[in-house]
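ASSEMBLY PREDICTION REQUEST
Request ID: AP-0331
Submitted by: J.K., bench scientist
Number of chains: two
Total residues: 509
Priority: normal
Notes: Please return the full assembly, not individual chains.
Input sequences:
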Amino acid sequence: MCLGIPGRVVEIRDDAGLQMGKVDFGGVRKDVCLAYIPEVQLGDYVIIHVGFAISRVDEAEALKTLEILATMGDLVRSELATMGPGMDEPAVVSDDGTPVRGLFGAPLTGAPGGPA
Amino acid sequence: MKYLDEYRDPVLARKLVAEIHRITTRPWTLMEVCGGQTHTIVKQGIDEALPDGVRMIHGPGCPVCVTPLEQVDKALAIAARPDVIFTSYGDMLRVPGSTTDLLALKARGSDVRIVYSPLDALKIAVANPDRQVVFFAVGFETTAPANAMAVAEAARRGIDNLSVLVSHVLVPPAMVALLESPANQVQSFLAAGHVCAIMGWTEYEPIAAKYRVPIVVTGFEPLDLLEGILMAIRQLEEGRFEVENQYARAVRREGVPLAQDQIREVFEVGVRKWRGIGEIPASGYQLREKYARFDAERRFSVGDIHTQEHPACIAGAILTGDKTPLDCAAYGTLCNPQKPLGAPMVSSEGTCAAFFSAGRGLGGLRTFSPARPLVQVAPIAPARLPETAEAGR
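STATUS: Completed
Returned structure:
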């Protein structure tokens, strides 16, 4: 119930005084209520929750977050190099200390911050 | 899918995990408020990837879980009536009431229908003018604009055969109740991104200041959660207690004003009972008198129903973070998602269901020990004691 998912607005219409529309979620299209985001434009990404757009995704902010994350990796790597042993253990280990399934189900092959 | 896949990148995730390890010098206890966040954290093993001593307590933000048993029993009483079409978000159907659940009623012939949106309930009411259509209006601030719109539209369009059984709860009063508890261990909150998308975060600023807890508005994807945790720990390490916004692509400080207007038009704040927690003053929405004719409790005169939880279920302690599902004797044995005893095992947002679907404590590869270090953390925002701080990693 609480899952809000981002989708792209592909239709905006007036439905008996209520701003409605269609949103595309990677191929699946849903009828949604756009009344709370009147400034929404075709092609915008909105977050849909129980059939209502509750937020317009700010593309600049979305990209900024990803850029910060991407540049952080280099800082982390150089920091890691100065820290010596102790930081080289895998992020996810089982109770006996052996590496198990890493984040997102992928096998963990390197140290945190290391190559995938 | 755009704005989802990018935030699930494992390479970036490992960088964030490494950065969290790098900056952490002391044990900290964080709470993610929202059940959707709990689901991701447990499923992706994010909590297990954190430095030793950094603990995630899973918060009460699962609407299905906190809906009080009385409301479920009222729903069952209404849904059993032959003149009623009972509509609900899907995850409420298997929540056990005192004697049965909505799904079992449906199997026995009651007209219970799952709707994705409350506007679907409105459509059903229009299509069935000779039947009473009732919508189970549960949820936090996230579903409130939708539920409010359904009531307002029913009023505007004169659809009188729709009514709503309201069980609406609010996040900030629950956070305050947790912080006021003498047993509180939470030192920082990850606030629920979509609640804040609607409401903004101004309500959280006085909470952060008064209780000296960092609050980070956080999204739902793995990278969002890791970045939220990083921002929270950074504040804790630096002795700051501010409201910060990790989820800037979706959340503005003022929220969505039109949605807030619609909520205020239809609902007023009132006392609410939370399953497992009890009554919290001014912690939920109820219909304003102006819309009282859409109140299903009045329309069907479902009075006070006294209820009893299953004796083996420790849902209350789970919801407040006092216990984990692994402390529960019924977890995975008497109680599982197919046959839940309590609400946290029902909803995929519930802590028990999240643990179960990740296979925690169920044998196999990952035998998760409940004896992970329990950090003693009495003060909410302790003074920094760098000389006693243990090097984290």
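REVIEWER COMMENTS: Confidence is low (pLDDT under 50) at residues 76-116 of chain A.
SIGN-OFF: pending second reviewer
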